[in-house]
Amino acid sequence: TDENKWPGAPVGNDNSVWAGGLNFQQNIGETSFSFSVGHRNRSKADAEVDFMSTVAPATGAGGADETRLSQAQHAAHTAAWEAWEYATQNVEKNKLTGLTGTDDATRAATLAGIVNDGLAGRTAIMGATSSMMKGDNDTFTNLGVGVGFGSFTFNVAYATRDQGSYTAAPMPVRMTPAEMIAHAGTITNGSAYDSPASGTAANQVTSGDTATHIIDTDHMFDHDMDPDTPDVAESPQTADAAAVNDPANETWMGSTVVKNKQGEWDTWGVSVTYTDGPMAVSLGHMNLETGAGGERTGTMFSARYTLAPGVDWRTSVFQVEDSTHWNLGGREARQDVNEGTGFVTGIRLGF
Hints:
The protein contains three helices and 17 strands. It is mainly β.
């Protein structure tokens, strides 16, 4: 356990909870009126949120205290970590085949390389990861109104919730010109590349005495020998990329703690019911919107007819649609759309 980090908060623990509600009903002749309101506040233990900071260390980019990762480095370390976890799971289907080498010793060395790369990748990612305790109160408020006129009843309801939860959202940051130059000196392929040259061009990366790349800090991600050509093919996203013309090599991998918009939602519903002797029909509609921009709707028509005491025929037709946006801090990650229609009928017996 890193002694510089807070331990994770216990899940489901509440510091305090209070709630209040009010219900009112009144009949005036053939008119009925109902009203309800409620509120709940739950003060919960803050949760630990992990994020990757892009704040420069005191020594600057490439210094002894540098823990930040470029997007390319993060992608490579993540892939190595996943490969290590996959290879070391005690599951038959995850056993690796086709390891380099024809003898057991060579194959074992290849597997050891996967393990070492995975451990190094995990260490690098964890070293670049910070955490903080962040959370607000979980609140829920509801309101309902109903009015009846003879055989008709109209209802309106509203509810809102804020779960007070936070999460980490991607926030990559472009390197400064100085950081680009310093970081380019750390991108090596064996001993092919040295530190930025100190000769005629301070923003020049050399191989021996030959200039191989010029970092054009005036144009975003233009890092080949010709600063006038902005369109440069990207190099593979590897931890030790041989070229420095990949945008992922000049952007710090970062994230920030933001409110979890999926934990915020508002919902409302309306319905009308008509009752006449043994028959009753109703039509209702409900709409829910999340703080992330998702929307869920449902409409249902129901009918009931009393055939005999304790014997009812009931049927319902409903249609629902879920257009859910997964949004973090204004950044939409994806959108899922699901919809369906259903029909239910049957006899209900009551004794």
